[in-house]
Specification:
Layout lengths: L3 H7 L6 H17 L5 E5 L5 H8 L3 E6 L2 H9 L5 E4 L11 E6 L10 H14 E11 L11 E4 L4 E11 L2 E10 L2 E11 L3 H10 L3 E6 L12 E6 L4
Helix pairs in contact: 2-3, 5-6
The structure holds S-adenosylmethionine.
Amino acid sequence: MYSDVFCKVYDEFGWNYYPEVFGQELLAWMDRQQIRPRSAMDLACGTGVLCRILQGYGIRVSGMDLSGGMIQIARAHGTEISYAVADMITFRPEGQYDLVTCTGDALNHIPALSDVEQIFRNVYDYTAPGGYFVFDLLNEREVSTSEPFEMEHTDGQRIWFQMTRPGADRVALTIRVYEGERLLFEEVIRETIHEPTAVREALQRSGFRVVSFDDHLPGAEGHGTTWFVVAKKEDV
Ligand SMILES: C[S@@+](CC[C@H](N)C(=O)[O-])C[C@H]1O[C@@H](n2cnc3c(N)ncnc32)[C@H](O)[C@@H]1O
């Protein structure tokens, strides 16, 4: 669970960059494919960056996240988008969406692949026939132990951040808040790297057709790292 401290500095860290880039690539892909969703659900929407991009494209957007702090920040940007605080493992909204998204390695926050598969089954049910589920996943090549970095926060507080690899399929993001040399707060966010073949099979078992599973959205430039997955619920 993301603490309030982490939620408040999430965009300050510059992590809004990823959904912004992804959002532009997603819009470009939809334009190329002439996909015109009328409704979208962004799972684990965080501060709502992708929701706002999709809404700006004329889509009726909903977002959800486990963290009340993230949703509070998302809601502060305006009231046109409806948000919910929920766990995507059990989340089953009423109605269906033409597009469901889940980005920013949110699915890597789910340790058990069986729970990821449960999310896929749920998403399949609330994706409209002919609709798409687009998400990203950490690629094990992309995550290595980083040098810690620091940034000034408010009132002389410093934020310290480091990413480490405590195991072959594990990633840990540690965030600390210091006042002078005094540690005020520490939080560790743990992520799991899921094996791409297993994810692909779980998607197929859930009913989806895998359109693309690559280091880029179809037609976009390769990133060399993150997996971008496009899955389709076929028309019946
Ligand atoms: C790295 S952030 C990405 C946020 C946003 N998608 C973005 O790209 O900026 C991961 C998000 O996943 C959310 N999250 C983690 N586990 C979740 C769960 N079980 N259900 C819903 N959201 C979850 C966290 O609260 C956090 O906001």
